[in-house]
Amino acid sequence: MKSGSATPILGIVFDMDGLLIDSEPIWQQSEIEVFGQRGLELNVLDCMQTMGLRIDEVVRYWQDKVPDFKPAVSDEQLVKEVLSEVKQRILSEGKPMPGAVELVNRLYGTLPLAVASSSYQEIIQAALTRLGILDRFEVLHSAEREKRGKPAPDVYLSACESLSLEPQNCLAFEDSPGGVRSALAAGMAVIAVPEPEHENHPDIQKAHLKLKSLEDFEWNADQLRSGIPELNR
Length: 233
Hints:
The protein is an alpha/beta fold. Helices cover 41% and strands 10% of the residues. It has helices spanning 24-37, 44-48, 55-65, 75-93, 100-107, 121-131, 154-162, 177-185, 202-205, 221-226, and strands spanning 11-14, 113-117, 139-142, 170-174, 189-192, 209-210. It has a six-stranded parallel sheet, sandwiched between helices. Strand 2, helix 6 and strand 3 (139-142) form a beta-alpha-beta unit. Helix 3 crosses helix 4 (75-93) and helix 4 (75-93) runs parallel beside helix 6 (121-131). The relative contact order is 0.20.
C-alpha cells in the first residue's frame, strides 16, 4: 500500500478489550459468574449483546431487559464485583491479541499513542501492565469519566484532546461495531479489526479499513504523517 496526498495522521488511539488484549472471554465469564450469583443466568451470546459497553451500562441494560432482575445489592456494588473478578482474571490469564504488543512497540516513540476504552481505569492499567506496555501510552482514557460511553464519541474526543491533536489527525483502532461508530462520530480515521462474528456487521463495514489482525498493519510513522489515501475516503 502506498502513501499519498491525504490527511496526515499524527497520533494513534487504540481501543483495548478484544483489540490489544484478549479480554472479551474474561469479561463474558466474569459477567456470567457474578450476575449468576446475583440471580441472573447469562450465557456467552447474552454477553455479546453488550460488547463494548461500560459495565455500569451493562448492569442497566439487563435491568431494563429483565424487569424481574432485582439483585440484593446496589448497582455500584454489582459493578465493583464484576470489576474485581475481571481484574483478577486479567492479571493472571490475560493474553495479547496477535500483533498487538509488537505494533505498539513498533510505533512507540514515533507517534503519540493513547488508549480510549469502555473499561474502567483500573482495568486499563491492569491489562496494559499484564502485557508489559503500560509505559508506551501518553494517554489512558476511560469512558467511566464520560457521561456517555461508546458508541457516543466522547471517549475518543477526550483522548484526542489529551494528546493535543484534532480528531481528524488521529487514527483509531477498534474491534467492535459500537467502537467503530464512536470513533467515526468523533471524526477520526478508523481501522477495524473485528471478531469473526462481527466481520460483516454494518458498522464494521463503515470503517476506513478492515484488517484480520494487527499483524497486518504495515505502515510506519513517516507514511502515516504523510497521509494514507485509504484512510481518507
